[in-house]
Every structure is written in C-alpha cells, then in structure tokens.
Give the backbone structure.
Amino acid sequence: MRRRGARPCPRATHAPGEALDSRPALGHDWSVNTLGPAACAAALLAAPAAVWASPPGMAAPGAASESAPAEGGAASESAPAEGGTEAKAAEPAGEAEPAGGVESSKPEQPEVEWHRRADFMVGLHVGVGLGAGIGYPNDALKIDRPEFETNTGASGGGAGTFWIGGALADWLSFGVALSGARLVGGGYQTSSGSVGFHTEVFPAFSLGELGEDFGVYVDAGIALLQTVPTGEDSPVIESGGAGRFGLGGFYEGLRVWQLSMGPYVGADLVWSPTCVRPIAVVGWRTALYSGP
C-alpha cells in the first residue's frame, strides 16, 4: 500500500539468491520498482552515506570492482616480465666470473721491429761543388743598382752538412743540421753558413736489400752569406737573413759496425732579396745508427 503523493524508489535488480548490497554501484542498470515507505526511506538514506564514507581519491565501488581484475592482471603480467629481466641481467653476471680466468679477446698489437736503422743517429756528408754568387751589398742605396751588382761567375769549392737526430723508422730519419759552403773563383770568395732541419727518406725500402740503402734527403733552414774580393774584407755581396734549401740522393750500402757509408749528390740554394747562390755537390756520406 502506498501513500498518496509518494514517489517510487529505485531498486537495483539482482539475480535470485544474490545478496542485496545497500550501497549503490555505479554503472549498473536500474529498474524502477515500487517499495514500501520504510524500504524506500532506508535505500535513499543508505546511498549518500555510502558515497561520503568512501575516502578521498578512492574510486567508486563499481569502478573499483571493475579495475581490480585489470590491476591484478597487470600485476600478473608484469611479474613474469620483471622476473625475465632479472634472469637476463643475471646471465652476463655469470659470464663475468669465469672459473680460472679467461684471457682478453682483444687482439694484441704487433710489435714494430726495425732491422736496418733505428734510435739515435748522427751523420756527416762532405763534398766538392761548383756554384756562383750573384748579388748586392746589404745597403738600401745599393740594392738593385747595376753599378753595385757582383757576379762571381763559376766558382769551385766545397760544402758539408752535419746533423744529429733519430731514425723514426727503417725508412725515415729526422734531425737538426748545421751546414756550410765555400766557393772561390773569379777573384772572389763566397762563404755561407746555415742551421735548419735534415730529413731522410728511403722510398724503395719495401723492395728489400736492393732498395733499403737508397735514400733521398731534404735540408731546409735559415742562412747567412757574404762575398768578398780575394785579399779584402769589405763584402760586395751580403745576404742579410736568407733562406736555404737543399735536395739530394745517396747510397749507404757500405757498413762497418754501426756505420753506414756511401756516395751522395745534391744541390743547394741560398737566397735573399740581395743575393742568390746556387751550388751542386758530389761527395761522401757517413751515418752512425745506434740500432738495431
């Protein structure tokens, strides 16, 4: 029996024999049925009480019931993955502790072995040459003026270079050098001296004994030069600061102890704004190698 003016109360439908939950579940299908006044009032009072009783940030009962299997499934799926990760991480740890020790798999670098020349070296080549000197006094009022130009013509003399350094490889040597040359002819004496670098390369070394003793040398440095008339001291050619470049070839196949000797040929040039002095040289070369 229903009072006049009473509104119908919603009631959740459920399967027969299922316990009636007085807390409303979100997302369920609701059907409208008519209850007695007491049951309707109890249901209306229970719904807000259930909602306010839930802690802040906690999902609704229906959502919790639906998300629980998902969380459980996620946990069940992540558990094997974590276990697999631990298993994989454990494999390298087992390999990193070999019983008795294992040698490194990194290939060893082959040692460089020198069999012809190595380590410290010192050398000297001396020869006879033919050259000339052309230029002016180192005076701004006399440079490039024909009346002050001097040409010694072909002159004979000698030249030599001393160097000290090291054999960086069987086919390469490098050192610091001191050089000097002197020409006499045409009533003049031309003298020069220089300091610079001496480099030797053996380009045919890979051919074996046939080519390992043939080399090429290059000299480069700074020089001073002057030419004076024979018997006088006043220079008619002065270089000031000059450059020097030398190039030649040699053979050092004659060996005695740690000495290597043989002939050489070369060309040498000293130049500056006030002079030029070319010379060609033929001579003998001796080098001492401390190794191998």
User: Anything to note?
Assistant: Residues 13-75 form one domain. The chain has two domains: 13-75, 118-291. The longest strand covers residues 275-291.
